[in-house]
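Help! Submission page says 'invalid entity' but I think these are all valid:
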Amino acid sequence: MTTMPTTTPSAIGQPLDRVDGRPKVTGSAHYSAEIPLPDMAYAYVVGSRIAAGRVSGIDASAATAEEGVLAVLTHENLPRIAEQPPLVPSLAGTAAPGQTYFPMQDDIVHYAGQQIALVVADTWERAQHAAHLLRVSYEETAPVTTLDQGRDRAYVPERIFGGWIPGRIERGDVEAGLRDADVRVEGTYTYAANHHNPIEPSSTTALWDGDTLLLYDSTQGVNATQMTVSRLLGVPMQRIRVIGHYAGGSFGCKAMIHAHPTLAAMAAREVGRPVKLALTREQMFTSVGHREEQEQHVTLGATREGRLTAIRHHKLSPTSPFDDWAEPSLGTSSQIYACPHYEGVYRLFRANTMTPTFMRAPGEASGMHALECAMDELAHELGVDPVELRLRNHTDVDAMSGFPWSSSGLRECYERGARRFGWSGRDPRPAMRREGDWLIGTGMATATYPVAPLANPQRARARLYADGTAVVQAATPDFGTGVATVMTQVAADGLGMSVERCRFENGDTDLPNIAAAVGSAGAGMISAAVHSAATALRGQLVNKAVADAGSPLHGADPVDVVVRDGVMTAGTASEAYTDLLRRNVQPDAEALGQWNPPAHDIPYGMMTFGAQFAEVAVDAELGLVRVRRMTGAFAPGRVLNAKTARSQLMGGMLWGLGQALLEANHMAPDTGRWANSSLAEYLVAVNADAPDVDVELIEVEDDIVNPLGVKGVGEIGQVGVAAAIANAVHHATGRRVRKLPITIEDLL
Amino acid sequence: MPVRGPALTEQDAALLEQGPGPVRVGLSVNGAKRTLDIEPRVSLLDALREHLHLTGAKKGCDQGTCGACTVWVDGRRALACLTLALTCEGHEITTVEGLSEDGELHEMQRAFIAEDAFQCGYCTPGQIMSAVALVQEGHAGDDDEIKEWMSGNICRCAAYPHIRAAIRAARDRM
């Protein structure tokens, strides 16, 4: 093949407005519960009131007698699943059930809210009403849900997180490292369970046409839905199409495929009508996973000069009866500081809960809180500035593997973040600043998030029409990340066209590609595919022109051809793509692009870095905490769109604020039910909680991770924020609160 | 099918005398008269979304806690999920679909796009309906006021600083 001709990238990085802005602000964007289909029926899920035991009977007579009720499905009459696929993160591009359990296959109750019946009726109101007429009787046993109930029965799992992470991670001799330390800090950190709560509840609309199934699903991966439903129903892939043009947020709860899309398909087959199944807000707390309640224990050993000699990081958390799941909180603490001795151990216990799942910065959000609070404590103990302490332990290699980072930028993040925030000259003494009733403090933390290794070839298709417009396609949904916008930019640069003439089409299994956009990997993997498809099409057109006797470019060397605004130019000769196609009576041209990700064992550490700074005010009498300002400096590789990237990072930082001060759910120990299952009780940040946020982007080149050097911005924004806030609370008040969220009673 | 009798033209009396089966309800939505046969328990939100296919108003919680369903009833902000559709007879309903005129975006819609005041877009129609109303109410004087008066609309993507920027920008042009 000839050498690829070049273009001058101009669209990538620009702060382009979102391409889906207009439909979103006018209400014309249709989410997956908003597809008008004739003869629609509505399914309402009934969850178990008890957390442990069995369903001893369901009397559906009153419900089925209601006008408009089409079906009541329970474990007694719901079809059996064809096969339960294993739990594998959807990034792998395989079936990805949220847990290895499918409801209503028997009468056992494993957790409160577990689906025990499905009522289908001709209106939403009738389905909901009839559901409340079901008379369910139970045989109840005592549930285990809290850390204190499960602590004594904990075990160290062989692997967690869908089998991807070992239960124990070690290097060196952590006991020796702690023995050799001049200084030790040690603390136990506790974390309330967190729930994603995207504003769009998960929903699926299912429609059968003979033996072919069409699903509109709110998902991070339309293919993940397709593959999971295919395995569970035993319907071949070729007969299932999944469309997800819009998803109203996810944050991880739509990354794995939970039971409801399959239940919607089963219900639609049962009643012979299209079925809409939308979870209620309350059901979102028991149907789509959560970030588990957990306890972490961190011990740091260091020399008097502040060099780490040992890190011990242990975690205890509940998992479901089915799966060994914990979010990998101990990953980054093993990697990001130079330290000879490390020990990370996960301990799990079986509890009456569904399998927890990914939630934004899964693992890092909690693990980096514990580590970075401990680092702050160490800095305080040693009398070393917190930024300086981190620089003293900085590593240019992945401390676990010993491989160099594919790119870093962490030093610049510290430096520029500190400068923008005004960190230097900080008086390190706690509880020294007061403005009226308010105690003022500042804190910082390191942010790190791994660049996920990919398994599958990434594919996209590019098509140019003779009218000079182009469509580039990949299956991936846009659940608010801005992927449709940034891929338009990537496509435009690859084709050598303006963004106005390019359209990115996505969110449909009929389009190329497989893996779900999770783990901040979407931008990197999809841009690789789109770039590949667009440049392949450009190469095809350039090669055609130089070989075409009728073209002004005939005989030119393809490497000398530059394409801009759809015009190919070599020296003084030029021809538009459109002229080339029309002269050849060719209505369009098309290319499939494919990028094969690097092997998992490449000798590089792949990580995104950043630094977080926060200022808090704590009411000395009331214990109220207000975050006054935040600065985050991030090095996410190449930034595809400065506007959407900043927005995602800002949103992540405000998630960190919520994690630090607001978000909590707790199991009632006697009933095994969540106590805060509404947005009135599970607090998330509202406008009045959110200060203005300063986001600094530091672009670093990275030619290892993927062709455009994109490391992703979805999760790094949250990592470290809760630690920066907790450290600022200590600086303001002198009090170390080792739990999240930090609430008023902790500071009274 | 029961049809509302002449004695029930007084609003508020309607609730006492109708249902439980479907009743005929006349709604004025975005200036257009619409007639629906719906059970009295149907919320304004479900009437709009499921019966009129106006899905701009979103169902985020169905409990009045998130603000995604915010519409105007006679120009005042209302939570459509906590409002029964039949109580809206004789009142003018405005949804986000009725905000732009002849395809021209409202200043607030334009500002939301320019300031990137959303990501997933699901809370956005509710945010915009609240935002326009609070400017009209005179509650958008400064950021503190905007923060307070916009706190009934949750944005889980946390675009709040950009929402404030959009409201400031549109306020000065409205």
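Support: the input was valid. A stray whitespace character was the problem, and the output above is from the cleaned input. Chain A touches chain B through 63 residues (CB under 8 Å).
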